[in-house]
Amino acid sequence: MKNDRILRALKREKTDTTPIWLMRQAGRSLPRYREKRADREMLAILRDPPAAAEITALPLEYFPVDAAVLYNDLVTPFFGAGINVRMEVGIGPVVDNPIEAPADIDRLTPFDPNLTLAWSMEQIKLLVQRIDVPVLGFIGAPFTLCSYLIRGSRTRHQEEIKRFIWQHPEAWHRLAEFWVEHLAAFGIAQFEAGAGAVQVFDSWAGSLGLEDYERYVLPHNEKLIRTMQDAGVPVINFYTGNPALLPLVSAAGGDCISVDWRLPIDAAWDLVGERAIQGNLDPTVLLAGRDVTLAKAKDILDRVEGRPGHIFNLGHGLLPGTDHNVIKALVDFVHEYEAEKAGA
Q1: Residues classed as catalytic
Q2: Average pLDDT of the chain?
Q3: In angstroms, rounded to a whole number, what is the distance separating the alpha carbons of residues 69 and 23?
Q4: pLDDT, tens digit (0-9, with 9 covering 90-100), for 202-223
Q5: Which H/E stretch holds residue 183?
Q6: Separation of alpha carbons 28 and 8, rounded Å
Q7: Count of domains in the chain?
Q8: How many Å apart are CA 249 and CA 238, to the nearest integer?
Q9: What range defines the domain where residue 108 resides?
Q10: What value does the mean pLDDT take over residues 25-42?
């Protein structure tokens, strides 16, 4: 590996420039990605390691990001647990036989990700041989993962999963513990296959209030992250949507906390404490064009003031309509800004 900026930033070591990667960078904003997905369903591509690896590496042909995030999906572990899931256009993952009652949890099948999800690890092994930046693996946190598993239409309010948790708290803890065990094993397997770090996505945790997060999410996320870290895995802990949760999210652990745009990054870092931070440009900004994007990026970098441990990213994933030329301008600007300031 020639470029280890991300791995050094996770340890809060000084880097020659601010490292940057972008969530959903191997996605619909890239013309060649749209060509590759034209006649193939995503979940089929995931089980084809050479094809998936090609998509993971695709952003490097457009802009010099400092990491390649694995082309995968949060619901991939469902296959290991015997859950049939499909992707529906405009909806996302849909489970054919979702959980409706506590007894349904017993349908979940224990699994070894090295066996049932071997194609994910094979993709990583191919990438490590091919590219000179770290591969970032990822998993979903139990709450976010189960938002796709509990019956009902998933909305920004997460009504169905919250109702299940409140009505069946003991069953929820049992369900979350099942996923903690298997998600930790999946994250460790990705690391052992060659991933430089693993990001835990709790994308929908922001729908929760403080008491509910502390009671129903924090213990499980903490155990998940600790289990991976005990195995030597560098962990990025990502959530979005509710700034009041940031101290509790930080308490769950991680070498790096990934934050969204709802707090200025310097204020967020004060709450995160002595660890790395990732973020935190609003992905919608890129739709406003190059000049607006770079001005917003400059504000973030000025607030950070070159402090070691900052990984530049968005507060959530790239939006489909984003111009890849604006993305490249952003990546180049982040790489060049600190060097230009030092030489001024």
Answers
A1: 24, 28, 37, 73, 148
A2: 94
A3: 8
A4: 999 999 999 999 999 999 999 9
A5: helix 169-193
A6: 29
A7: 1
A8: 8
A9: 5-343
A10: 82
